[in-house]
């Protein structure tokens, strides 16, 4: 993972790994260009198909390991959706499961050395988060009509405070997609950049290099944890927002 | 120091952060949407219904197995109850047979005993009769001897014995 | 000169990560204190714990973002 030393001095390029590159040929990156983004997203899709379609193709009543993993993931997300949003949130389960499984696999694939982390890009996570934001807002208005605005009117607070609280609630509502996306991208970007910085220190010498390599190992372990937790957090926040849309009363 | 991203792919937007290189955004967004749609279709058409059906099937199998086990247990309990009942019946039957046999034997025994008693009683009666006859015979003989002796003694003493008086005297003595 | 000021600003912004760390520690510590008092209720609240940690952490990520922007984008 360590970059080669350019001309003698220390070379930290912690952000090179996030570069979007053409896979074939030269030229500008158009919207349809096949890039490393395309490749790693396709690998994620392939892994998902491998786990959830090929892995469960036997439909065994007594599952093997792959099918067991697929069923565990299914049960995990299903329970989460049911617990947080209630029974009427179940019909959005495929959508939430799509988000969860895509983020989970992108995060984990990004941890492979030399790989590209699609979810470390603001563009990707912002689309994910704004998709959630618009979906949830539309569902809220379709299901509840104008009563959805009751979400911002905290009826349990004293009357004098309610307008102020309403302003705060509205602001926090619109900040949701921003924090939702930046949390995911920022966590992954920070983790991967720190890994690269530690890897850069591994060039330094006999004394610092072992420490740096141990640091890489430790940070890598932390990043494995963070990958899973961030996928979980993104999903559960989606469920919480969906619950707000389905039951806007505080 | 890192302000020199001279790699080939970095378009000259000047920004060091690839995340803020807006020229790559349409590309990423396009491929992300493609990916999400593909994953959504695969999941909602194939994977999730399949997993749901497998889970439901497993739940059904477990429920069925539990029901079957319950039924088997009930049947075993029934069989045990029937066995116990049969055992009780057999015991009662045996007790009855024992009682019947006992009664039968007792009845036979009673009849035999009665028969024996009657025989013994008849024999006893016969013996008593014989004894009484012998006794009577002996008394008569004693009486006759006593009368004759008394008559002879009276005659020898020079008296004239009245037969009736002697008989009465002897009878009185014999009773005493 | 301006670039050097930006680097100093980036370093200052990175302090925000430490503040977020305090926040996350606070959330997790209070959760643990509560969970040890009533362990039976703890399992049902892990989702809340993660949501709380996520919110506390998001603000730290914002400061990290500011640092990155100052380093590379200004």
UniProtKB/TrEMBL annotation, chain C:
The keyword ATP-binding does not apply. The record marks 57 as: Reversibly protonated during proton transport. One of its GO terms (cellular component) is plasma membrane. One of its GO terms (molecular function) is proton-transporting ATP synthase activity, rotational mechanism. It is found in: Cell membrane; Membrane. Residues 8-70 form the V-ATPase proteolipid subunit C-like domain. Keywords: ATP synthesis, Cell membrane, CF(0), Hydrogen ion transport, Ion transport, Lipid-binding, Membrane, Transmembrane, Transmembrane helix, Transport. It is a multi-pass membrane protein. HAMAP family: ATP_synth_c_bact. Belongs to the ATPase C chain family. NCBIfam families: PRK07558.1. Key component of the F(0) channel; it plays a direct role in translocation across the membrane. A homomeric c-ring of between 10-14 subunits forms the central stalk rotor element with the F(1) delta and epsilon subunits. F(1)F(0) ATP synthase produces ATP from ADP in the presence of a proton or sodium gradient. F-type ATPases consist of two structural domains, F(1) containing the extramembraneous catalytic core and F(0) containing the membrane proton channel, linked together by a central stalk and a peripheral stalk. During catalysis, ATP synthesis in the catalytic domain of F(1) is coupled via a rotary mechanism of the central stalk subunits to proton translocation. This is ATP synthase subunit c. It comes from Tateyamaria omphalii.
